TrEMBL record, chains A, B:
Residues 4-58 form the HTH lacI-type domain. This is Transcriptional regulator, LacI family. One of its GO terms (cellular component) is riboflavin synthase complex. PANTHER family: HTH-TYPE TRANSCRIPTIONAL REGULATOR GALS, LACI-RELATED TRANSCRIPTIONAL REPRESSOR. Keywords: DNA-binding, Transcription, Transcription regulation. One of its GO terms (biological process) is riboflavin biosynthetic process. GO terms for molecular function: DNA-binding transcription factor activity; transcription cis-regulatory region binding. It comes from the Bacteria.
Length: 346, 346
DNA sequence: ATGAAAGCGCTAACAA
DNA sequence: TTGTTAGCGCTTTCAT
């Protein structure tokens, strides 16, 4: 059985296409019996109005496009999950694309999506794009009047709705927490030093140190690139400075760091505390279970989808908003307990 | 700037729409200079042909729909990643949907996708659908001439291309391996006893036992539902039988089981070996690192996408195929080393 | 070399 | 109550 259209039904009953259309849309203009037999026939033959034709006519696709940098990253998976669920519940379909942290792929994808395929876009910038700073492809989309929500990795150069994790506060809060547990020499291991997110966390860290009258030392911020050997970098760090805490800016690095320290016979958290970013699936299963910063990925996804769909539904203009989502520190066993006396001074 | 169409360009130059269309598509019918100025103008104004209009005309959307039961499950994330990458490289867009293991949601999603939105579908059945056994919605899609590839959780009731993990062999191989390491009392902990996948693994397990002349005991197969407390179920198991190996049918359960055994002061692997299914991100980070069965998710995704797109590109009919993808056992530290003498007998 | 017209599947204003 | 027509944006014959 081929796909059935209004025309097929019209021909079958010898009526006009518009009669069939009206009958199926339960118009009052159509007589009881005609309506009945047409609807019955349509149901029997699994008639479904062609969404493409509808989209062309209505100039709206009921579809939103999502571009995430890396779907294998649990944070983005969670965001995507939140988006999909929310969009779905409001009758939208989701086209999902992965930029794979590549500028070119992001650019191509934006072009594709802005060619009438989606009503709006939710995205987080690829690392390469952030490093490069070329955002023309995104500005083009905005000029095309396609509403967009950016989350997590955003940029000031584009005016649109944004949802950002309060990464500055997260860096600040985490550092403060470690200081409260009595740590003094806090290092950072970052695999995302090119992204806004990574930079903000480091700034928050810096602020917390400064507030306590501690010096910021560039050597304490270890940058790990794809090809680098984390073990060597950490060894170098530990050899030159008596570190007593490490903040890892992503989950994998946190776990890797933990394992490296364990291999070196260093006790966690007695000798060195570890806090990791992005509370995913790994952290609670390693031992000691890692204290982590949760970014509430699913919530961010829901929020992004709702903001976008609200804008799509709203006639007239809405000002752009930027929502700041706070992180939560999930205390587990890779950090010492907070020193009560010390805390009293805060 | 609003979205620009062929008509806008035609009006601007006082030519016909078809001239513009031809110019943009670099037709030889159009004169050098007209072509040049039109193309230039189009580029300057970011003209992009409307994909929806194209789809309607060509009766093909260059889009494939993917339905996975649970995107938070790393296996499915991997498959999705493979699909997205492959589809993209061949010029296809991916609409991704999550059934959330729900029959209703799967049904709705199928309807949506089959309304002309996609050229083909890749899917894995929701657990509820497998339990219920009602596949009408899927048969409808096939009747609508929409090519489909099912992977992992498939069904005999639908004729289409399929990719299945050789779960029988995986269960068999895993059991055999444990026997070779000297284990005799092997239990299974399953959270997916309703799915074809779960059943096949248990059958493979059974076969391996039988081959060695060992009895299959129903009590050795522990079924964990969502509300059940794994710890209690494992305690009950261990109290009644002197188990020396446990096969966990998903990664989370494997890790949970490991932690429960450790808490009970049971040594892994000396007292009890553990093998888990689906090699994800957790397994290698826990200690002892878990021996796991890898299902090659990304590869399955690539394969599914290629099979589907090959079929879409092919004129004339192709017979349906079912590919059986073998699993790999990744030996780590939660199992004993294979007993060489024992192996000699195999 | 350029344009007119038909048509993909559908809805909606307007006629009958 | 039913039908005719136009049009969403595009390509593709078939004139001109």
């Amino acid at each position: 059985m081929k796909k059935i259209t209004l025309k097929d039904i019209a021909d079958h009953f010898g009526v006009s296409i518009s009669t069939v259309s009206k009958a199926i849309n339960d118009s009052h203009e159509i007589s009881r019996d005609v309506k009945l037999k047409i609807r019955q026939y349509a149901k029997a033959h699994h008639y479904r109005p062609n969404r493409i034709a509808l989209s062309l006519l209505k100039k709206s696709t009921n579809t939103i496009g999502v571009i995430v940098p890396n779907i294998l990253n649990y944070f983005f998976t969670q965001v995507f999950y939140g988006i999909e669920k929310t969009a779905n519940s409001r009758g939208y379909t989701v086209i999902s694309c992965v930029s794979d942290e590549s500028f070119i792929k992001e650019q191509q994808t934006m072009k594709l999506l802005s060619a009438g395929t989606v009503d709006g876009i939710i995205m987080s910038l690829a690392e390469q794009t952030q490093a490069k700073g070329d955002l023309q492809h995104i500005l083009d989309v905005m000029e095309n009047q396609i509403p967009m929500v950016m989350f997590d990795r955003v940029t000031d150069k584009v005016e649109c709705d944004k949802i950002v994790v309060d990464d500055f506060e997260a860096g600040y809060k985490t550092t403060k927490y470690l200081l409260q547990t009595g740590c003094k020499k806090i290092a950072i291991v970052s695999s995302i030093f090119n992204s806004s997110v990574g930079k903000l966390r480091v700034e928050g860290y810096r602020e917390a140190l400064q507030e306590m009258g501690l010096d910021y030392d560039d050597k304490m911020v270890v940058k790990v690139g794809g090809a680098d050997d984390l073990e060597i970098l950490i060894s170098l760090l530990l050899d030159s400075i008596a570190v007593d805490a490490i903040i890892a800016l992503d989950e994998m690095t946190a776990v890797d760091t933990l394992n490296i320290l364990k291999m070196k016979g260093i006790d966690v958290p007695d000798q060195i505390s570890i806090v990791g970013f992005t509370n995913g699936r790994l952290s609670k299963y390693v031992s000691p279970a890692l204290t982590m910063v949760s970014q509430h990925g699913k919530y961010i996804g829901e929020l992004a989808a709702n903001i976008l769909m609200d804008r799509l539904a709203y006639e007239g203009d809405m000002p752009f908003t930027t929502k700041l989502v706070k992180t939560s520190l999930i205390e587990r066993d890779s950090t010492r307990k907070v020193d009560k006396n010390h805390r009293a001074y805060q």
